[in-house]
Every structure is written in C-alpha cells, then in structure tokens.
Design brief:
197 residues, alpha+beta, 7-stranded antiparallel β-sheet, 2 helices, binds calcium ion
Length: 197
C-alpha cells in the first residue's frame, strides 16, 4: 500500500477517534488589552461589550475586572442584541481579587459557561452589573478596557461618548468534532485522488 494513503488512513482513524473525546476550548473573540481605562458598574449601572463570534459553541468568557472594597457580587449575562438572555451567572465577590492599593490593579476573571450555541457573524452582548449599589467610590467595580481599540467586531456601551473604546474580554469556544471529521475525510479523498491521477 502506498505510504501516503496509509498515513492518510491512519490520520483519518485518529481524527475519528478524537471525535469521541472533549476538546480544549480556544479563544474566538477578544480585546486582550492591556487595559488603559475602565468604567465602573453597579446595581443600576450596566456596562456591555458587543462581540461577533466566528465559532458556534461558547463555553467560557474572561473579563478584566478591578474590585475596590466590598461592592457585592458581579452579575454577568450573555445576551442577544434584542435583549434575550442566553446565559446568566453570579460571580461571588470573594472570587474576585481585591485591589487593596486602589491603583486600578485589574485581574482576569473566568466564567465557565455550559456550552451555549451562538450564530456565527451575528453580534451578541456581554453585560455586567453588580448586586449592590455603589454608595462610595471605595466600594466599587471597574471593567477595564482599551481606548483606540482595534477590535472591530463589536462596540461597547460607552460608544456614544468613547468611540473606539472596547472593554477587555475573551470568549472561548469548543471546536466542533463535525468540522474535524469533515476535514479528515477531505484529506483522505484528496490524497486518494492524487494517487489515482
Ligand atoms: Ca470596537
């Protein structure tokens, strides 16, 4: 048997077997920073960042958050543009590192999402607010972001006054096994055709 065909067949079998295991998710959309400005949020002040996925299975997001004092828990939502909430999670205050120095030290907080399906090339929103009103500046959350951001697949909630600002975020998606199987079959057929020709 031709070595190329044999190796393609082995690759095909490996890919088929891989379809039965779970894949590590990879970053789809992001404004990774570094943060150079942030906006505070509280119970009645919600901030949002728009993103437009290129992959369908969203399974994690990360947000760049600064916490001063004890501002309550963070409420994170993934929403459709029309407002429908696809997913909502409360992140407990104690799971968000505190900036004791009040110098806007920020951290990436990670929110695992039980896989939800998104439509590619359709914009969605990540919305953030908190469970408590921020009565003093010493007890407040800030979502870090970037001025003159080059992320072009979405705008932020402060777009009207801060054009080209985007909040720092990362969306993670799981590659779909079907895509890999199709790729595997395609490679096999291509190599076979090459041999026949
Ligand atoms: Ca943008």
């Amino acid at each position: 048997m031709n070595a190329k065909i044999l190796s393609a067949m082995i690759g095909y079998i490996v890919i088929l077997n891989c379809a039965n295991i779970s894949y590590a998710s990879i970053i789809d959309q992001q404004q990774p920073g570094p943060r150079n400005y942030g906006f505070w949020f509280e119970k009645d002040i919600t901030r949002w960042q728009e993103f437009t996925p290129t992959m369908t299975v969203l399974d994690k997001i990360e947000l760049n958050i600064t916490r001063w004092g004890d501002p309550g828990n963070v409420i994170v939502e993934i929403c459709e543009q029309q407002g429908n909430i696809l997913y909502s999670q409360i992140v407990q205050e104690e799971n968000i590192p505190k900036d004791d120095t009040y110098d806007y030290t920020s951290n990436w907080i990670s929110i695992d999402i039980p896989e939800i399906s998104l439509n590619i090339n359709i914009p969605y929103l990540i919305k953030v607010n908190s469970s408590e009103a921020s009565s003093t500046v010493e007890n407040r959350y800030f979502w870090g972001g970037v001025t003159n951001s080059e992320y072009t697949r979405g705008i932020s909630s402060v777009e009207n006054s801060w054009q080209d600002y985007d909040f720092c975020f990362k969306t993670y998606a799981t590659p779909e096994p079907a895509t890999l199987i199709t790729f595997g079959l395609g490679s096999f057929v291509c190599l076979r055709k090459r041999k026949i020709n």
